[in-house]
């Protein structure tokens, strides 16, 4: 799109994200009439209605929601290109806190953190390895990687990947207890529990795997400890394919069993729009997960 078109899209995004023409105008440093004209021009060019007015509020139409998703991607790509073209990434300083589960922090993130070190060497990254959901609004972290979408409307969330998990056990365990050949066989094996055993039992039930508390004779609140117990031959556990692939001594059980799918959400606060250090980390993480 030409320069004018991009200005119109920026006006639309600012209005959609702030919820009003006046707030959108303040964000972009424009007058409200100017912003309103740009949004109207975009609607005229596309031939669709992007907003509906409910009282004093503006609500996105279905077409508006679609354009919002595409517009954000365009904006992020444009900003990333500008950073790369001007070499600004090399000069970005400060600290960015990323929170993710301990397993993801230890097994999945290191390659992308290495890329980040190469791209922004003056940036400090603090990895907060935690399985609880850190409160971004309280600035306990700048970016969160989670399997649930946040409910707070003030946060920005992007679904960056649909991950796959399978059931695994150590070769030593399988040689001792036998390799299950069916889902029914799997129900008779020992499992290593992580956090809430009751939720684990409910989670695998739709797969036809019927477990009780007796299947979980050992558990841990730490994902890393649970996975280490699996490696040491204590039992079976589901695990992300990316993690199991780089773990020696582990075998996938029932290879024909359909994968367990789970979402990976990248979440941050609205400082993303004004902070170059958060923007470059967020974009690189999104690119990393999208390529996996």
Layout of helices and strands:
Blueprint: H1 3-18, H2 21-28, H3 32-46, E1 51-54, E2 57-60, H4 62-86, E3 94-100, H5 102-108, H6 110-119, E4 123-129, E5 143-146, E6 155-170, H7 171-177, H8 183-186, E7 192-194, H9 197-204, E8 218-220, H10 223-231, E9 237-240, H11 241-245, E10 250-252, E11 260-269, H12 276-290
Parallel strand pairs: 3-4, 3-5, 7-8
Antiparallel strand pairs: 1-2, 5-11, 6-9, 6-10, 6-11
Helix pairs in contact: 1-2, 1-3, 1-4, 2-3
Low-confidence stretches: none
Distance between the termini: 29 Å
Radius of gyration: 23 Å
CATH T-level fold name of the largest domain:
D-Maltodextrin-Binding Protein, domain 2
For the report, how would you describe the main beta sheet? 7 strands, mixed
Mean pLDDT: 84
CATH architecture of the largest domain: 3-Layer(aba) Sandwich
H/E element string?
A: HHHEEHEHHEEEHHEHEHEHEEH
Family: Belongs to the LysR transcriptional regulatory family.
GO biological process, one term: DNA-templated transcription
Domain HTH lysR-type: 1-61
GO molecular function: DNA-binding transcription factor activity; sequence-specific DNA binding
């Amino acid at each position: 799109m030409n320069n004018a078109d991009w200005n119109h899209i920026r006006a639309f995004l600012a209005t959609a994200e702030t919820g009003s023409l006046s707030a959108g105008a303040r964000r972009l440093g424009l007058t409200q009439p100017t912003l309103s004209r740009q949004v109207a021009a975009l609607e005229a060019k596309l031939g669709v209605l992007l907003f509906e007015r409910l009282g004093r509020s503006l609500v996105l139409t279905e077409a508006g929601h679609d354009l919002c998703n595409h517009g954000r991607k365009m904006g992020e790509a444009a900003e990333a290109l500008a950073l790369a073209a001007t070499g600004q990434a090399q000069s970005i300083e400060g600290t960015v806190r990323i929170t993710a589960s301990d397993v993801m922090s230890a097994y999945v993130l290191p390659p992308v953190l290495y890329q980040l070190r190469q791209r922004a060497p003056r940036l400090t990254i603090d990895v907060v390895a935690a399985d609880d959901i850190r409160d971004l609004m309280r600035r306990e972290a700048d970016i969160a990687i989670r399997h649930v979408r946040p409910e707070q409307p003030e946060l920005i969330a992007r679904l960056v990947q649909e991950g796959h998990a399978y059931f695994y056990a150590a070769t030593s365990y399988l040689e001792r207890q036998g390799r299950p050949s069916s889902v029914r066989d799997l129900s008779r094996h020992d499992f290593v529990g992580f956090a809430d055993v009751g939720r684990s039992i409910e989670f695998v039930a739709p797969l036809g795997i019927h477990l009780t508390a007796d299947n979980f004779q050992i558990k841990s609140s730490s994902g890393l400890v649970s996975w280490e117990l699996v490696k040491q031959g204590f039992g079976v556990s589901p695990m992300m394919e990316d993690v199991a692939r780089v773990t020696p001594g582990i075998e996938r059980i029932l290879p024909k069993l359909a994968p367990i799918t789970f979402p990976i959400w990248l979440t941050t606060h609205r400082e993303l729009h004004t902070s170059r250090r958060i923007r470059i980390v967020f974009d690189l993480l999104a690119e990393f997960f999208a390529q996996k």
